[in-house]
Amino acid sequence: MSLMSQYFVFLDVIPLPVTPEKIEISIPNLNKTITMVDQGEINILRGKGLKEIKFDMLVPSFKYPFANYSFGSFSTSQIIARLEHLKEQCEPVYFIVTRCRAGKPAWWTNIKVSVEDFTVTEDANNGTDVIISINLKEYKSYS
Fold first, then answer.
1. pLDDT single digits (tens) 55-81
2. What is d(CA 15, CA 98) in angstroms, rounded to the nearest whole number?
């Protein structure tokens, strides 16, 4: 029996054709450390902070056989334009990672996020493909 695993990654309406090699999700806390006169340093425990997500995504300029286009495809310029639009309009979006094992969903990540920043890197070693390094931050609505 094969335990073939697949990852499907979406940012807003954009399906990533190539799953990032590594996705980092950090969960900071809001603890505060203070120094007391008689007791030295103490830690005041508070809740968790907003999740931060970082990854590099390959944006291929050709349809490669190793890429997944079953959810549609976007050109490099469309992806960059969409990311710029999200930053300019201050729109939160969903970051979704679906992990499948043996063709069935195993578990997933679904986080509402803001696009904090991104960097587009063109490298002669990648031909006309680009790498976009992106930083996202969890978004929680407030009233």
1. 999 999 888 888 888 888 888 999 999
2. 11
